[in-house]
Amino acid sequence: MHKRDSAARLDAYEAVFTALAHAARRRVLLAVYFNGGMMSAGEIAGTFSHAWQTTTRHLQVLERAGLLSCEKKGRMRIYRIEKKRLELVKDWLDHFFRKP
Amino acid sequence: MHKRDSAARLDAYEAVFTALAHAARRRVLLAVYFNGGMMSAGEIAGTFSHAWQTTTRHLQVLERAGLLSCEKKGRMRIYRIEKKRLELVKDWLDHFFRKP
DNA sequence: CCAACATTCAGCCGTTACGCTGAATGTTGA
DNA sequence: TCAACATTCAGCGTAACGGCTGAATGTTGG
């Protein structure tokens, strides 16, 4: 199980850091967070000037990375921020800041 | 000065998150850190299986992002980790974890 | 001075990222 | 039922990324 877990963790790092690499996706996370942690795809797309189809793809990247989860609510999709997943980044950083 | 500072900060985020987006570059930072914070380009390249010219480019990305600094020492180049710059990531994360 | 060495520079090349647009899907309200 | 709406899917072009290789640069020891 060790091997699997650490492999999974490596993939998780990969997904999370890749997701955070784009300014638009970082902005999405901030927007959702400061909107109370939940926002519909349309609201999110509305905060950007580029085509909402483009935002859709960013949302998918964030969801695949586990940084957003989404729930269908009628004809709209509500995205929720997954703060826990952001802690992966914290964990990685702690390699450098942890006291000996 | 406010405008300039915040613009610079945005660029800094961009550079840092982009640099961290690649597993090889994250590995470089960890390697340097656990080697006492300093390592020559050759030593770093030695920890990878791909051509060292490829590592060179990764090192440049990290240096441009301010995550590594480098000092010429004779015929070798010593890279030092810039922990302070890593704190930018911490700062960004704190948006989500700061107590109200 | 010169050969060996440490490293970078320049350019090729296949793959992926990200913007766009034009459908398609699925849901709601009248 | 049907039109309006919210959202995603599929495909296209361009630009960037990351691997490679073949030089070029600069430094050292003998």
Task: Characterize the structure shown.
Two copies of one chain form a homodimer. Chain A is an alpha+beta fold. Chain A has one domain (2-97): Arc Repressor Mutant, subunit A (Orthogonal Bundle). The first copy, chain A, is 65% helix and 15% strand. The first copy, chain A, contains five helices and three strands, in the order ααβααββα. Chain A has helices at residues 2-20, 23-34, 41-46, 52-64, 83-97, and strands at 38-40, 68-73, 76-81. In chain A, strands 1-3-2 form a three-stranded antiparallel β-sheet. In chain A, strand 2 (68-73) and strand 3 (76-81) form a beta hairpin. The first copy, chain A, is elongated, with a radius of gyration of 15 Å. The mean pLDDT of chain A is 92. The structure holds a DNA duplex (30 and 30 nucleotides).
How many individual helices of chain A?
Answer: 5
For the record, what is the CATH homologous superfamily label of chain A?
A: Winged helix-like DNA-binding domain superfamily/Winged helix DNA-binding domain
Number of strands of chain A: 3
Order of helices and strands of chain A: HHEHHEEH
CATH topology of chain A: Arc Repressor Mutant, subunit A
| Approximate strand percentage of chain A | 15-25%
The biggest beta sheet of chain A, please? 3 strands, antiparallel
Radius of gyration of chain A: 15 Å
Number of domains of chain A: 1
Oligomer: homodimer
Mean pLDDT of chain A: 92
What is the 3D form of chain A? elongated
CATH architecture classification name of chain A: Orthogonal Bundle
CATH class descriptor of chain A:
Mainly Alpha
Largest interface: A-B, 22 and 22 residues
Strand order of the largest sheet of chain A: 1-3-2
